[in-house]
Write a structure and sequence with these properties.
Radius of gyration: 15 Å
Largest sheet: none
Number of helices: 5
Distance between the termini: 23 Å
Order of helices and strands: HHHHH
Strand content: under 5%
Number of domains: 1
Helix content: over 70%
Shape: globular
Length: 114
């Protein structure tokens, strides 16, 4: 029986998710993977190149898992919380894109330590 906290809502999970992405290089890999997911989805639909849509999970998870296994050296949250993790990746992408990530990281560390 593990001592890991069980998350029952997305917004209670998100601070934990951010603390699992404390290294900026890992967050950068996630950002690249998410940007490619969005690009592949749009291009796949516009140009009717369905192989781009099929490539989405490999692209997204590939970048993310390299960051976790080789940079953070932790287990991706996707294995335990797949939907919360997927949603969190897009929220983190938005926070990076809009320059809010440092503030959100600090808030997450404060919430997790409490």
């Amino acid at each position: 029986m593990g001592t890991e906290k069980k998350y029952t809502s997305f917004w209670s999970f998100y601070p934990y998710y951010l603390t699992e992405h404390s290294d900026a290089k890992n967050r950068s890999l996630h950002f690249i993977g998410t940007a490619l997911i969005i690009g592949f989805l749009i291009a796949g639909i516009i140009f009717k190149k369905w192989q781009l849509i099929v490539a989405i999970p490999f692209c997204g998870y590939g970048f993310a898992w390299i960051g976790h296994f080789f940079i953070e050296k932790n287990r991706p949250a996707t294995f335990t919380y797949p939907l919360y993790s997927l949603g969190s990746d897009f929220v983190m992408f938005w926070h990076i894109l809009t320059g809010q990530i440092k503030k959100k990281m600090a808030e997450a560390k404060g919430q997790i330590q409490s």
